[in-house]
Amino acid sequence: MTTTPILSVEREYVRTFAYVAVVVFVLRYILHKILKLNQPAMPCELYFKKKSLTVQSIVNGCPELSKTYTPTWLWGKSGHIQTIVFGIMRKKNSDDLDSSRIVDVLSDGNTITFQVFNSIVPHPSGTEYTILICPGIFGDYKKNYVQAIVHAAVRVGFRCCVLNHLGMPTDITLATPRLFTYGDTEPFALMCQNIMTRYPDSKFIALGFSMGANVVCKYIGEEPTRQSKFLCAISICQGYDIQKVQQTLLQPPPMLRFYTFVLTQRFLALIKKHSQTFYDRSFLTEHSIDLCKVKAARSLYEFDKEFTVKWTKSNSMDEFAFQNSCSRNILNINRVPLLLVNSLDDPLIGEAYHDIPKKAAECNDNVIFCETLHGGHLGFFENGWLMPHDNFLEKLILSYMSTVIELEEIQ
After folding, report:
1. Which pLDDT does position 21 carry in this prediction?
2. Which of 374, 136, 381 is nearest to 235 (CA)?
3. Residue 378 in contact with residue 86, Cβ under 8 Å?
4. What is the pLDDT of residue 180?
5. pLDDT at 112
């Protein structure tokens, strides 16, 4: 039976309509589910004790806390895209800044380094201010997000000092088998002690990013007398509770599984770089580490279970997580202004972790928890249609520090 021309045309119309319908569905899915273009830009959600004159004064004097954060239009409302591209788009070159490297020695004989960037201009107040920066995982002064805030801060009168995490500098050989961990505060404590001795006339601000923010809050909170050494402290995109992170990693969502796989490969590459130390048979035997199982790890949970927990001599994963979490110390930070910042669309540290900063803001008179709808993990690109014009984090950090300084001068 032959097909009439009319039927052929009708079938072609149906086929074309089906193709168009599929394309429209896919575009709609991308625009609304992935790029989330239908979501409005929202002001930051602030949590703090309304009766506290300290934090109320900071909120009133810090315009960035009260403004509407407007992400880059096309892709800025996707936490995944913000997270993936932030390292690419925030490139700065610190070679043009006045900087020097300081070397010190930890208690086990390992060499720790930190980079000091001098301010380009004096601070308008006439007082010296130094920001002590603890980067995120695998971090050092070369990280793009670190260099971005350093470039912004030194141009308005701040000195910046950045910790290079143990094991990261390519020209430093480990004296003993030890790397940075999620909550090891000794390197940051040593940097603080060194810099505070070196610049006795300066006032100090602590700033931590992601894992580094956990270290900063743990350092300040585990010994409350340390709070008197700081003008204020700022935590950006941290997870607060390593135990809760571990529970999430047991059955991670698909994208989180990808992120943790990438981070695990970074750890494997790091111990391979220091293979003379970590592949040593006596070290592996002493700590009962099976190198084959370590190399086979495909997630941070597996890597920590087979390697980190053992070389740190923790009795269990729970003990390791407990010892490295700032969640048990953060409520002790009750004497110095503390700003905690997280985004709801952070693919690594999502809303499930926000109960801890909310509790800190509820209990203490000095804490502000700033929760944004968008921003991803350390992204926070702002304005523009395709290319961002600004970065919300840089403006918020500088605005918060300036507000605290102004209030201190008034008092």
Report:
1. 46
2. 136
3. yes
4. 97
5. 96
In this prediction the pTM is 0.91
Q: How far apart are the first and last CA of the chain?
A: 95
Distances (CA, A) of 328 to 208, 314, 333: 17, 17, 11
- Which long-range CB contacts under 8 A does 30-39 form with residues at least 24 apart? 34/78, 34/80, 35/74, 35/75, 35/77, 35/78, 35/81, 36/77, 36/78, 37/73, 37/74, 37/77, 39/77, 39/373, 39/374
Residues belonging to the active site? 210, 346, 377
Neighbour count for residue 16 (Cβ, 10 Å): 10
SS (H, E, C) 371-397: EECCCCCCCCEECCCCCCCEEHHHHHH
- What pLDDT score was predicted for residue 220? 97
- Do the beta carbons of residue 216 and residue 173 sit within 8 Å? no
Q: What pLDDT was estimated at residue 388?
A: 86
Alpha-carbon gap, residue 238 to 225, rounded angstroms: 23
| Residue ranges in the chain modelled with pLDDT below 70 | 1-37, 86-95
346 vs 71, 183, 213, 318, CA distance in Å? 14, 21, 15, 24
Which residues does residue 105 pair with via DSSP β-bridges, in sequence order? Answer: 111
